[in-house]
Amino acid sequence: MKAYKLEILVIDFDEVAKNNDKKAIGEYIENARYPNCCIYPHVISIQEAEIGDWIDSHPLNQGGLNKEKADKYFK
Fold this sequence. Notes:
By secondary structure, the protein is α+β, with helices and mostly antiparallel strands. The chain has one domain. Helices cover 19% and strands 15% of the residues. The protein has two helices and three strands, in the order E-E-H-E-H. It has helices at residues 23-31, 67-71; strands at 2-5, 9-11, 47-50. Strands 2-1-3 form a three-stranded antiparallel beta sheet, with no helix packed on it. The radius of gyration is 13 Å and the shape is globular.
C-alpha cells in the first residue's frame, strides 16, 4: 500500500491514485466540495512512499500519529 504526503498524510484505502498517479490524490482534495466553501486547498507538492501491508498494528494506524512516525516512510 502507498501513502502520500502533502504535509498531511493520506492513506489511499480506495486506491484513488490508480496506476501510480499520485496527482490524483491532490486533485481529489482540491476538487472536493467543502461545506460553505470553508476551505480552498491547493496542493503544491506531493511525496509518495510504500508503507507495506495495512494491518491494525501498522505504525500509521496508531492513535497519536505524529510527524516523526510518518517521516520515517518519506526519506
